[in-house]
Write a structure and sequence with these properties.
heterodimer; A: 328 residues; mainly alpha; 12 helices; 75% helix; B: 130 residues; 6 helices
């Protein structure tokens, strides 16, 4: 239970920090380190216990009978919890991760495959020559947009890891419900705050397949090649990742919607979970298209996807089915 | 059963890899400084000096000194974010303002680089008479 409290705390802290310090590289970096540390400890524990059968002593005094029995009971509880959590790892989550990976690859590719194909080697040569001749400095131009790419990658990695961890808790009903409640609560609060503070804008898709890479928007804006008015995340994605990026990202949402739809009308509680999940997905899509894009939007995506992840497991009731099988 | 176990193993392994990648990205974000921020600072300072150079009370030498300093700052910004065509155009304009043959050559060269970065600038610059 303690680790669940840490997980819930991490969701709340992340939502608050991401909303309060949008675009602050170091704050986001620290959050990523916290998520990575927590994820590594949780997943390595599950892996160790389920696949290698190792159990650590939970600090009970095994020299007397009561202590030995208590230690044994705790190990049993831990083993059951880890087995239950391992049921989260099905084909569905692997496909979801593969789709997220495809989006990440596309994002990385946009740095190298520019909308207007640049002769980068030639250009770097020209820049070097310029600097040597007019400024007297030797200079090697590497791609300076790497921080923007790293920032975008960091967002995807954080959401994917949170999705996996929420999955691992949601196989248990008693642990899944608090995760859903906190995820939904943080999602609704962030959504309301962002909608009221930033207002709602229209979305106008510029139909190009290949984008200008992460951070390209700033350059295009400084050259007044695109309007200065606030844009939605969807519009920015079209400029930076092209329509390809939009399709890759929305494919994850469509797949998730398919998971929910396949659970509808399979019992009351599963249907409710699936419908709430579909509603959150729809809200995420609307926020993507109609809220002005700021770094603070990550405070909406993260709890939103955590809630979707937990609801996805609960709508298929994996935990319940396996628990019944284990009783048999 | 064996397949299910393999899938679970793959899932846990993917999750662990994801944790490591997330940690690595976090470490990079904590340790690395955004070059665009430094470029913005240098660019803003350069602009301040150019505004000062407009002062009609300044002598020709003082004005030249301000232009030279502004050019050095803009150059720093370009070194930080070399793929921003706007900075190259600004740098070229300052060099042109120095009123030397080398400055004109520098101006021409910087426009070539800016339009190589983004060819769509060509008609835009031509329209602006640059």
């Amino acid at each position: 239970m303690n680790r669940l409290v840490v997980f819930l705390g991490l969701i709340v802290i992340s939502a608050v920090l991401l909303a309060a310090f949008p675009g602050h590289g170091a704050a986001k970096g620290l959050l990523l380190l916290l998520w990575a540390g927590f994820g590594f400890v949780r997943l390595s524990r599950i892996g160790e216990l389920v696949f290698f059968g190792r159990l650590e002593d939970e600090g009970q005094d095994a020299r007397n009978l009561a202590g030995a029995l208590e230690a044994n009971r705790q190990r049993g509880v831990l083993r059951d919890a880890c087995y239950k959590a391992s049921n989260a790892f099905s084909d569905k989550i692997l496909i979801w991760l593969a789709l997220a990976g495809a989006y990440g690859l596309w994002m990385g590719a946009m740095v190298f495959v520019h909308a207007t194909p640049l002769p980068y080697t030639e250009l770097a040569g020209e820049m070097r020559e310029y600097m040597e001749r007019f400024a007297g400095v030797s200079f090697e131009a590497d791609y300076a947009g790497y921080i923007s790419v790293l920032n975008d990658f960091a967002d995807v990695l954080m959401i994917a890891l949170a999705y996996v961890l929420a999955h691992s808790y949601a196989t248990s009903h008693s642990q899944g419900r608090p995760v859903i409640a906190v995820g939904l609560g943080a999602f609704c609060l962030s959504g309301a705050w962002l909608a009221f503070s930033g207002g709602v804008i229209g979305s106008s898709l510029a139909g190009q397949w290949v984008g200008y890479g992460s951070g390209g928007l700033e350059v295009l804006r400084s050259m007044e090649l695109i309007p200065a008015q606030p844009l939605s995340s969807l519009d920015i994605r079209v400029y930076e990742m092209g329509m390809g990026g939009v399709i890759f990202l929305y494919l994850i949402g469509v797949y998730q919607a398919f998971i929910f739809l396949s659970a509808v009308s399979r019992g009351k509680s599963r249907t409710i979970s699936a419908l709430v999940g579909l509603f959150v997905l729809l809200a995420l899509a609307l926020a993507d298209g109609f809220l002005p894009a700021t770094h603070a939007l990550q405070a909406l995506w993260l709890p939103g996807w955590i809630a979707v992840s937990a609801l996805s497991v609960q709508s298929h009731s994996l935990g319940q089915r396996v628990a019944k099988l284990r009783q048999i | 059963m064996a397949r299910e176990r393999r899938v679970k193993k793959a899932g846990v392994a993917a999750g662990l890899a994801l944790s490591l990648l997330t940690g690595l990205a976090g470490l990079c974000l904590v340790l690395l400084e955004d070059p665009a921020l430094r470029a913005k600072e240098s660019s803003a300072l350069s602009l301040t000096l150019l505004m000062e150079a407009r002062n009609p009370d300044l002598s020709a030498d003082e004005r030249l000194d301000l232009f030279t300093k502004a050019r050095a700052l803009k150059l720093q910004a370009v070194l930080q974010t070399p793929y921003n065509p706007k900075l190259w155009i600004d740098l070229g304009r300052i060099s042109l303002a120095l009123n030397t043959p080398e400055g004109q050559e520098e101006y021409r060269k910087s426009l070539v680089i800016a339009t190589t970065i983004d060819p769509r600038l060509k008609p835009l610059l031509e329209r602006g008479g640059l």
